[in-house]
Amino acid sequence: MTGNTIVYDGDCGMCTTAAAFIERRMRVDARITAWQRTDLAALGTTPERAAYELLWVDRRGRTYGGAQAVAKILLAAGPPWSLLGLVMRVPPFRWPAHWVYRLVAANRHRLPGGTPACSLPADRRGPVG
Q1: What is the pLDDT of residue 118?
Q2: Which InterPro entries match (predicted)?
């Protein structure tokens, strides 16, 4: 493992927009890649997990998913983002962060930027364009 990696769903317009925002505005020291274009086994994860949630894989190979991945990204982005990331990592705030993340993830196909592919299981999607 040479660096941090952010793994997102390349089939989802909302996820792709969020990844582009992280790359342009937050300048996080991480490789940002769609799970469909990544050797997930080399990162120590599976397509099922990557399709289920955003992932942050750190330099040591530890994987964080969902709201905790978002918190790691915010922490890595530095001020002012890191304050929100810090709050998201500690109880009791991490519990509602998880709940909100799961709510958004489960309904991303209904949200602005979401695509119909977001609602399909990973094994029923076509290749990323």
Answers
A1: 63
A2: DCC1-like
